[in-house]
Structure formats: C-alpha cells, structure tokens
Amino acid sequence: MPKRNKLDFESALAELETLVSRMEQGEVSLEESLRLYERGVKLSQLCQETLRDAEQKVQILQQKQGKEQINDFPNEE
C-alpha cells in the first residue's frame, strides 16, 4: 500500500510553528483552536517520526563504520 504524500520535516515544522503562533495570539474561536491543536499533534508526530528515522539511519551508518553509539555534539558557546 503506497504512502500518502507526506510533508517533509521542514514544511511540517514551519506549519506547526505557524499554528502555535496563531493559537498564542488568542484570536481564534474554540472550535478553530481545537482544529489547530489536532493538526498540531499530527504535525508533531510526523516531525518526531522523521527525526527518529533519521537517527536510526545515522546509527546504521555508524555501525557500518565500526562505531557503536551516537555521541552528542560538543557544546559551542
């Protein structure tokens, strides 16, 4: 069964940021707020899934190179 056209990570994140901004302004009705919230949950799940998939790919690539775990990036201040 083919996947539906999914938003890419950047588009989903941008839409999520827009939804949050609209809701924070407090100028939408309760029904619209609920609709925006529901859409936001779906976008958040899509972003989390995309990040999880990317992390798995990185882990697989590191295992192929003989590295067992992902190291955190050093803090740059």
Automatic annotation (TrEMBL):
<comment type="similarity">
    <text>Belongs to the XseB family.</text>
</comment>
<keyword id="KW-0378">Hydrolase</keyword>
<dbReference type="GO" id="GO:0009318">
    <property type="term" value="C:exodeoxyribonuclease VII complex"/>
</dbReference>
<comment type="subunit">
    <text>Heterooligomer composed of large and small subunits.</text>
</comment>
<protein>
    <recommendedName>
        <fullName>Exodeoxyribonuclease 7 small subunit</fullName>
        <ecNumber>3.1.11.6</ecNumber>
    </recommendedName>
</protein>
<keyword id="KW-0175">Coiled coil</keyword>
<feature type="coiled-coil region">
    <location>
        <begin position="44"/>
        <end position="71"/>
    </location>
</feature>
<dbReference type="GO" id="GO:0008855">
    <property type="term" value="F:exodeoxyribonuclease VII activity"/>
</dbReference>
<dbReference type="InterPro" id="IPR003761">
    <property type="entry name" value="Exonuc_VII_S"/>
</dbReference>
<dbReference type="GO" id="GO:0005829">
    <property type="term" value="C:cytosol"/>
</dbReference>
<keyword id="KW-0269">Exonuclease</keyword>
<dbReference type="Pfam" id="PF02609">
    <property type="entry name" value="Exonuc_VII_S"/>
</dbReference>
<dbReference type="GO" id="GO:0006308">
    <property type="term" value="P:DNA catabolic process"/>
</dbReference>
<keyword id="KW-0540">Nuclease</keyword>
<dbReference type="InterPro" id="IPR037004">
    <property type="entry name" value="Exonuc_VII_ssu_sf"/>
</dbReference>
<keyword id="KW-0963">Cytoplasm</keyword>
<comment type="function">
    <text>Bidirectionally degrades single-stranded DNA into large acid-insoluble oligonucleotides, which are then degraded further into small acid-soluble oligonucleotides.</text>
</comment>
